[in-house]
Structures are given as C-alpha cells and as structure tokens.
Design a protein that fits this description.
By secondary structure, this protein is an all-alpha fold. It has one helix and no strands.
C-alpha cells in the first residue's frame, strides 16, 4: 500500500513537471515570436521615418524656393532693383565703424 501511494505521488509530480516544462516551451516560443514581430515592426517604423524625413526635406526645399520667388516678386513690385555691385564688410574691422545719426 505504501509503495502504491509513493508511486501515485511520483506520477503526480512527474505530470506536474511535464506540464511546467511544456508551459515553459510554449512561453519561450511565444516570446520569441513576439520579439521577432517587434523587430520587424521597428524596421518598418525606421523605414517610414526615413521616408518621411526625405519628404519633409523636399517640402522644405520647395518652400524655400517659393519663398525666395515671392520675396523677389515683392521686392520688384515695390520699386527695389537688383544691385549690380556688391559691398562686403569685414567683421574683424568692426571697431573702425562709426554709428552716424541723422542729427549731425
């Protein structure tokens, strides 16, 4: 009788350990598949971000071009004309410049 009770306990413990082992294998496969899906989604998100940044750069370039065109049109309609000779100021000689007011 005692041997039969011990045998039943061993079967019970073996069954529990087998269930725990199978549960561990299933959990491992689940978390492995979830991590693979997350890697794929991250790669897609990175590609989407790169394409959106490229599109934003194109839109900024077209905005700057349109803004320059509008500024040129506004300048010519208000009587401004393009300067033929340009004057450059050297920043290192800044202390030699004098501020002049209209009261002089």
């Amino acid at each position: 009788m005692k041997v039969l009770g011990i045998h039943i306990k061993h079967q019970y413990v073996t069954g529990i350990l087998c269930c725990l082992f199978l549960s561990g294998v299933v959990a491992y496969m689940y978390f492995l598949s979830v991590s693979v899906v997350e890697v794929v989604l991250r790669k897609e998100a990175t590609q989407t971000i790169a394409s959106l940044r490229s599109e934003i750069a194109d839109l900024e370039a077209s905005y700057i071009l349109a803004h320059h065109t509008i500024s040129s049109r506004v300048a010519t309609t208000e009587g401004f004309s393009e300067i033929k000779s340009k004057v450059f100021i050297n920043e290192s000689e800044r202390e030699n410049l004098v501020l002049r007011t209209n009261n002089e």
